[in-house]
Amino acid sequence: MIFLSIDRVRNTMVLGLVVLISACQKMGTIPVVPSAASLTVVNAVPGSTPVIPVINTGSPITYFSFVNPLIGYGSFIEYSPPGGEDTTYVVQRTDTLALDIGPKSNMLFYNILNLKPGGIYSLYLCGTDTSSPDYLLTTDSIPYYGPTDSVMGIRFVNLSTGSNPISINLEGNANGSEIGSLAYKGITTFKQYVNNSNTLDYFFVIRDAATGDSLTQFDFVQNYSYNGGFGLIDPVTYNLLTFKSITIAIYGSESNGSTFPLNTMLVDDY
Fold it and tell me: Residue 21: what are its φ and ψ, rounded to 5°?
C-alpha cells in the first residue's frame, strides 16, 4: 500500500487546479468559426447561357463541363458562403477564362463582397445582354411571421433594363394599387398577403406606370397549387409559402418583338 504525505496531496491538488484553469483559458481562446451568410444569385441577363457563380476565390475554374448546379436564364440558386470578404465572379458555362486572376471582359459580374456572418443577400444579374451586364446587390431584411399568422411576404424588383417605370395592381383593382411606380433596379419592401385555405388567386398585372398599358402578369394559381387547402405551395420545392417571404422579379425587355420579352419569376427568400 502506498501512502502520500499531506504536502504531496496538497501539491497534487494545486497542480490539478492549475491544469484545469489552464485548460479553461485555452478553451476560451479557441478561434470561433465564422457563421455562413446567405447569397441568392438570380440570372436575369437576356441571352445568357446557364451561368456559374464562383464564390470565395479569384482563381479561374478549370472544368466548366463538370460544374453543377448551373443557373439558367430566369432562375436562381441560393448559396451559403462563409462570412467575410469574398471574391465573387459569375461567368457563362460556354465561356473560358484566361489563366491569370482578375476581372475579365467575359465575366457577367466581378466584385469583392463583404458578406456579414448571418447576413442575407441577393445578387440580381441583369443588363441589356451578356455584352452589357448589370447587377443589383441587396442586403435583405426578412420579416418574421409568427405561427398564428397565415400570411406570406411578397416584394417586387424591376430587372428590365431600359424599361419605363412600372406599376403593379391585383387584377380588378385600380392601376398601381399595389405599386405605383417602380424604376429599373428598384425593389420594394415585403408586403403581407394572406395564404391559407381561404386564399383567392393573386393575379398581379404589371403595367407601364405612365400609360397604364398592360405589359405582363404573375398568376399564382396558374403556376402554383394549394397544399391540401392550407395555402399556396412552391411547385419546385413543394414548400408551403405560408410564413415565408418571396420576391417577384420582372425581367426581359418591354420592346415589341424582343427575343426576350418581359416576363416574371418567383425567387424564394426565407
Answer: -65, -40
Helix (H) or strand (E) run with residue 126 in it:
strand 120-127
Q: How far apart are CA 244 and CA 144, in angstroms?
A: 8
Cα–Cα distance for residue pair 60/113, rounded to 1 Å: 17
Residue 67 and residue 93 in contact, taking contact as beta carbons nearer than 8 Å: yes
156 and 261: one domain?
A: yes
In terms of DSSP bridges, do strands 120-127 and 38-43 run parallel, antiparallel, or are they unpaired?
Answer: parallel
> How far, in Å, CA of 44 to CA of 250, rounded?
9
φ/ψ of 215, rounded to 5, equals: -110, -45
The verdict on residue 122 lying in a domain is: yes
- What CATH number should be reported for the domain holding residue 258? 2.60.40
- Ranges 11-15, 106-110, 243-247, 250-254: which has the least confidence: 11-15
Which is nearest to 97 in space by CA: 81, 82, 110, 79?
110
C-alpha Rg value of the chain to the nearest Å:
26
Judge whether 68 and 103 are in contact, CB under 8 Å. no
229-239: pLDDT as tens digits: 678 888 777 78
Residue 204 to residue 171: CA distance in whole angstroms: 6
For residue 63, give every residue at least 6 positions away whose Cβ sits within 8 Å of its Cβ, in sequence order, or none. Answer: none
The conformation of residue 35, written as its DSSP 8-state character, comes to P
pTM: 0.82
